Known about the structure:
Strand order of the largest sheet: 2-3-4-5
Mean pLDDT: 88
Largest sheet: 4 strands, antiparallel
Structural class: mainly beta
Shape: globular
Distance between the termini: 17 Å
Amino acid sequence: MKILDIRSGKEKIYKPIQEVNNKIICEQIKRIGYKFPEHRVFDYYVYDNKTKGLRKLRKNNDRIQYGTVYNKNIEGENCIYYLTKKRNIIYDEYDVYKIDLDTEKESKIFKFKIENKYSEVKIEVLTDNYICAFAKEPINWENEIEIDNFEDSQYGYSCGYLFEIDTKNAYEINDQSLLKGVKDVFFKTNFGSEECIIYEENYIETWEKEQEYEMFVKYKKYHESQMHKFFYKDSLKVIPLKKFIEQVKNGVLNLEFYELATRGYEGYELFYGVDRENIYCILKDFDKMNEEKVVFINRDTLKRKVFTITDETEFDEITGDILNNTRFSYSFENKYKGVFAQKLRNNNVTKVKEVMNGQIEYSYPVDLGLTKECLEDRYLVTYNQYSIYEPYTNIIDMKNNKVKKYKAFFKIIGDKVILF
């Protein structure tokens, strides 16, 4: 294990994303209030392990409207794509730039226009000749949010387009379930023997679904017909990339996605990451309070491994109060993949046990926070955050019972704990 400290000591934060050719690729972000704003990337930097310093990757100084970093093991290339915008009276002009992370060469690859009523635009570059773009209008928070209104602006995107680079043609995406259901998960990757698009249809948060479910079952508040409303659906889907492009160009209303995992009002499906080997998701059925399933879908063979995780939370039989609460954290993106069950003992001690492989069991003071990662079957990385300005990363050596504390965020890349 190696510890790499790239903290700036300022409001600017350089968030590590991945490593390419012994260089750490970082997003420059900034604290605003008590959180990092979604999709707000100010710039891209590289930390060179040889020179031990940060330098800017972009030559362009225009404001980034949207940016995304591709990984060769997932999207098939190491690069950055980002958008800049020039405002106009009716249509805003967007430029798409690419930075090749192997050569650090930067180029503008496409220009398109979208009506300026749309405040947020995101893209997915599908091939050298096709770009998918989604656009949405700003949510008017003064209006009452209607959870069962499919057209409500809180859901997904208002419109989407497939742009063909060589002809400059634009094809509108007509599948409303895709437009309204797409939230955070929409990316290309190899799946089985071909390139595909992975997409998660999702409308409301897991806690909202559980709250609604309790109204159904516990209080009988709604009629049974309510159970089949669109916004209760969670679904992880796949479609071959060539078929997606062909069907969008032909104006198909319902694109032929295949469901990999799905849940309705009775539970939830939650995408939890992807790496070279697997796609990960979590399945929960609300009628099984103390149980959820972790699913590994192998990207090459399409075979599944399902791990049933049991919550050992104990309740008082008379009052129903929690006597011994168990909290879980998941680690799938790095070399050591595990599910950490963590119990708070009465003596202010957290007992952590890795329940998927069963190789780790350890106790430490509760003020060190929750276990997030494990390296080399020896080092626990725990995290505690009192506010956005007070994040603490702790590295516990379970062999020597020693702790190193850092006022920092962290990211695990390979065998490195990167502090930022």
